Amino acid sequence: MALVKLGQLQGNALIVGASRGIGLEFVRQLSRNDQIERLYAACRSPETATELLKLAEQEPKLQLLPLDVTEEAQIQSAIGHIQTQTPQLHAVINCVGLLHDGDFQPEKGLRQIDTEKLLRYFQVNSISAILLAKHLVPLFKHTQPSLLATLSAKVGSIEDNQIGGWYGYRASKAAQNMLMKNAAIEYKRSCPNTIIAQLHPGTTDTQLSQPFQRNVPPEKLFSTERTVTQLLDVLAGLSITDSGNFWSWNGDRLPW
Ligand SMILES: NC(=O)c1ccc[n+]([C@@H]2O[C@H](COP(=O)([O-])OP(=O)(O)OC[C@H]3O[C@@H](n4cnc5c(N)ncnc54)[C@H](OP(=O)(O)O)[C@@H]3O)[C@@H](O)[C@H]2O)c1
Q1: For residues 14 and 92, is the Cβ–Cβ distance under 8 A?
Q2: Percent of the chain with pLDDT over 90
Q3: Element spanning 236, H or E
Q4: Is residue 96 lining ligand 1, measured as CB closer than 6 Å?
Q5: Above 60 in pLDDT, residue 121?
Q6: Residue 26 C-alpha to ligand 1 middle, in angstroms?
Q7: Is 104 exposed, middle or buried, given 0-12, 13-18 or 19+ CB atoms closer than 10 A?
Q8: Could you identify the atom of ligand 1 that is nearest to the CA of residue 44?
């Protein structure tokens, strides 16, 4: 039997971490896709997400939802709100991520290891991803092909780690990968038509990478437009047997 590829995303989609960067660009590209019926964009403060607000003014199918993914109650209430409108989601792309925030900077060495810092990395980058997988189950219990993609990072690959540093970010992405791999195994039983995909976007010109772009050659620093186009191509080629893997922007499978 031929395996059905996911193809172009269609149906109802939710982008989490949609205020800026890669998440905002997913919203932009999916809002132009006529196959997408309902498009939900979640972020901490939609009322100050200027670009997202502009898009929502132009695009009737786009709805903004307030969501801080570190608060499980907010995940429940955002998903509860979606359930009042539809029983099904076909694509969820979680673009939430934390690398730095003001004085909060990635560790260069062991001297900078700090419990609170590590906990914050794990809370935003790892725990939120699996809480989403937990609460999304009812919306994926349908028979159409669907997708739960989470933005990870190649620096979270344990095998690929050559240069060290960035303890909290690397470890929280490795933990995210393990949590989502586990979810993929359970989803095979509970949501057998949902593909779980971990994605490395490549270095992309956003607020997250901005302080670390100096040594990146221009051809290796992607615009958000390019990154999202590439990731949508990778996703389109996936079928259900690909669930539970870690993909790079060019379609290569990355080592855990
Ligand atoms: N850019 C790169 O080069 C690169 C490379 C590898 C992997 N990645 C990964 O790709 C993903 C997207 O990164 P990006 O470059 O687009 O970063 P970005 O521009 O900094 O955007 C990060 C997003 O995460 C959201 N966020 C942070 N904490 C949150 C929370 N507690 N609750 C809800 N949303 C929260 C931010 O929303 P607020 O507006 O609410 O802060 C923002 O929308 C991340 O997972 C990142 O690790 C990026």
Answers
A1: yes
A2: 98
A3: helix 224-236
A4: yes
A5: yes
A6: 12
A7: middle
A8: 40
* 199 bridge partner residues: 151, 247
Q: Choose one of 93, 198, 206 to mutate for the ligand 1 pocket test, by most ligand atoms within 8 angstroms of C-beta.
A: 206
pLDDT band at residue 2 under the 50/70/90 scheme: low
The letter for the amino acid at 234 is V
**Which residues neighbour 157 within 8 Å (Cβ) at sequence distance 6 or greater?**
174, 177, 246, 254, 255, 256
Q: How far is the CA of 76 from the centre of ligand 1 (A)?
A: 21
51, 92, 96: which to mutate for ligand 1, most atoms within 8 A of CB?
96
Give first-to-last CA distance, the chain, whole Å: 30
CA 223 – CA 142 distance, rounded (Å): 35
Which residues partner with 101 through β-bridges?
A: 104
Nearest atom in ligand 1 to 19's CA: 43
